# Entry
Amino acid sequence: MTIQVRTYQALTLFLQEACGAGIPGQSPTAIVEWQRTLDKYQAKKNGDVVNAIVESLECRETLLKLSSEIGLANDSNLRAALRTDEEWIMKLLMSTFNVEEDVLLLEGESAQCFLDVAQDVMSPTPCLIFTRF
# Structure
């Protein structure tokens, strides 16, 4: 039986709570659309550990772009949620050393995403990623 793993739960929850509380200056239509995106990520399971790490890069980028649209990119609570999630991904990454075979089978874009995530969460300043947007 394969364990299903989710990534960026804390960040998704933080953004859901922010949308639920209402965002000053934003239309209700925009908030509903953001909430739908967040609900999709909250319900998504990335699969096994290796696939979860690979798919986490796209999830992270989407959620951080959304946080910028909402106006929360520099919020300290967002950074705390991101730090919590990246610590979890670091633990997932460390667990892959026990399933090294699965990692070695990655090719192309999946292999590159895996390495990008490893580099991002192991960098000394993993929360300073907002320059991509």
The CA atoms of residues 103 and 120 lie 17 Å apart. Residues 49-70 form the longest helix (22 residues).
